[in-house]
Design goal:
This protein has 305 residues and is of the alpha/beta class. It folds into 2 domains: 11-131 and 289-301, Aspartate/ornithine carbamoyltransferase (Rossmann fold); 132-286, Rossmann fold, CATH 3.40.50. Helices cover 37% and strands 15% of the residues. The protein is built from 12 helices and 9 strands. The chain has helices spanning 16-31, 53-64, 86-93, 109-116, 132-146, 164-173, 192-200, 211-214, 234-240, 248-251, 282-287, 289-301; strands at residues 42-47, 68-72, 99-104, 121-126, 153-157, 179-183, 204-208, 220-223, 259-261. The strands form 2 sheets. Strands 7-6-5-8-9 form a 5-stranded parallel sheet, covered by helices on one side. It has a 4-stranded parallel sheet with strand order 2-1-3-4, with helices on both faces. α7 (192-200) links the parallel β6 and β7 (204-208). α2 (53-64) crosses α12 (289-301) and α5 (132-146) packs across α12 (289-301). The longest helix has 16 residues, at 16-31. Bound molecules: phosphoric acid mono(formamide)ester. Phosphoric acid mono(formamide)ester binds next to α2.
């Protein structure tokens, strides 16, 4: 029962063997339906920020395993609107559920919840910090479409400053000998703390704003939305949006087996003409959220070992 009772807060808490174990469990979930595995168990879904994929795929994952779901998709309809603290909310919800999935705008909020809760907490995204379940499904997608995780050249493009999915994924890929290309405007560069950590682990990293110059080298291009909601100054957002657009013309310079990923939602950073090409895996990537989140729910509640 290696994962029973474990909180899923940051990919930093998991080593290479843990990651591979979770991906293998997800593959088994995808192979075989388990409609009664979580019968009688309840997942609390606490979303303090908007979400389509994370919230709905966790709900769907739990229900497909026979479990049930309580929760909210906006704090406005809860006693938080009357001033109840996050701490007290978690103290209540742990009594109503076997596992808590939470998204919150503040960095560190998931860790705080895990320190209070007696049931496992799964971080569905905390501010600009981490989005570990997205990372597990990203890794699952990479392994499925490339047949391996080891030794890939991965480009990250877009909002590398505020994009928590990039921070989490880069962190996890350091275990797999990836060479990373961080493609962004100066204002949206990967934070230095993350670059220092990658360098300390011997990861070969390159920073550039010239996507055309590196596209032909990549096995995976991971695009992200410019996170408008995290910009303190709206004028700054207007200045940087639309800086990188992945379209058919750019992809003519790519290797034929390049795969384009995106955590979604997208704005205009991937042209719709790419959707039906062999490059696009972002919708499949979102669908992979189901087996991966099923595996995580079942592991942390002890429904599987
Ligand atoms: N990828 C992702 O976290 O999407 P949502 O914001 O829709 O959950």
């Amino acid at each position: 029962m290696k994962f029973k009772g474990v909180h899923i807060i940051s990919v930093r808490d998991f080593g290479k063997d843990d990651i591979l174990y979770i991906l293998d469990c997800a593959a088994r979930m995808e192979e075989k339906r388990r409609p009664a595995l979580m019968a009688g168990r309840v997942m609390a879904s606490l979303f303090f920020e908007p979400s389509t994929r994370t919230r709905l795929s966790f709900d769907s994952a739990m229900r497909r395993l026979g479990g049930s779901v309580v929760g909210f998709s906006s704090p406005k309809a809860t006693s938080l609107a009357k001033g109840e603290s996050l701490k007290d909310t978690i103290r209540m919800v742990e009594g109503y559920s076997d596992v808590i999935v939470m998204r919150h705008p503040l960095d560190g909020s998931a860790r705080l919840a895990s320190e209070i809760s007696r049931v496992p907490v799964i971080n569905g995204g905390d501010g600009t910090n981490q989005h570990p379940t997205q990372t597990f499904l990203d890794l699952y997608t990479i392994r499925k479409c490339k047949g391996r995780l080891e030794g890939l050249k991965i480009g990250f493009v877009g909002d590398l400053k505020y994009g928590r999915t990039v921070h989490s994924l880069a962190e996890a890929l350091k275990h797999f000998g990836a060479e990373m290309y961080f493609i962004s405007l100066d204002e949206l560069r990967m934070p230095g703390t993350h670059l220092d950590d990658l360098a300390a682990h011997g990861v070969r990293c390159h920073e550039t704003s010239d996507i055309e110059g590196v596209i032909g080298l990549l096995d995976i291009l991971y695009a992200t939305r410019i996170q408008q909601e995290r910009f303190p100054d709206p004028v700054e957002y207007e200045r940087v949006k639309g800086a990188f657009v992945i379209d058919g013309m750019l992809l003519e310079k790519a290797k034929p087996d390049l795969k384009v990923m995106h955590p979604l939602p997208r704005r205009d950073e991937i042209a719709e003409e790419v959707d039906d090409s062999d490059f696009a895996v972002y919708f499949e990537q979102a669908r992979n959220g189901i087996p991966v989140r099923q595996a995580l729910l079942a592991l942390v509640t002890g429904a599987i070992e």
